[in-house]
Amino acid sequence: MSEFMLEPLFPRLSVRLRPAVRAARILGAAALLCAGASASAQVTIPNGRLLASNCFQCHGTNGRGPGFDSLAGKPANELFRDLKEFQSGQEGNGLMAKHAWGYTDAQLQALSQYLSRQR
To answer: Is 46 helix (H, G, I), strand (E, B) or coil?
Structure first.
């Protein structure tokens, strides 16, 4: 059996560890190092994607829905104009007006751009 010294934590303390326990500690430390490395990797989320996630129940994932208008691939300026009309109340006081009212112009632009790039 190998002897593992815990001197940095406990001076003059020596503990005999079984090889399996020692291997488990080494693997645990390696896993923590790998987790730290992967956590530092950046994940790129397309601009507007998170905003579009609010639309999926009616318009489907990525703007391709079965029940309501398909938003995927429509021109961004058309989508933005429609959303602004909903936001202003020109299209009534329905559900879309309530949704659009909660966004800034920059968010509506990002949402329109994202949906226009979907195919």
So the answer is: coil
In this prediction, residue 75 carries a pLDDT of 95
Q: Kindly report, residue by residue over 30-62, the tens digit of the pLDDT.
A: 666 666 555 556 778 778 888 888 888 888 878
| Torsional class of 98: left (φ above 0), alpha (ψ -120 to 50), beta (otherwise) | alpha
Closest of 41, 44, 96, 43 to residue 68, by C-alpha: 96
Q: What tokens were used for 7?
A: 């001197």
Dihedral angle computed from the Cα positions of residues 31, 35, 41 and 43, in that order, rounded to the nearest 10 degrees? 130
Q: Which tops the pLDDT comparison, 21 or 13? A: 21
CA atoms within 13 A on the CB side of 70: 9
- The token pair at 29 is 């430390």
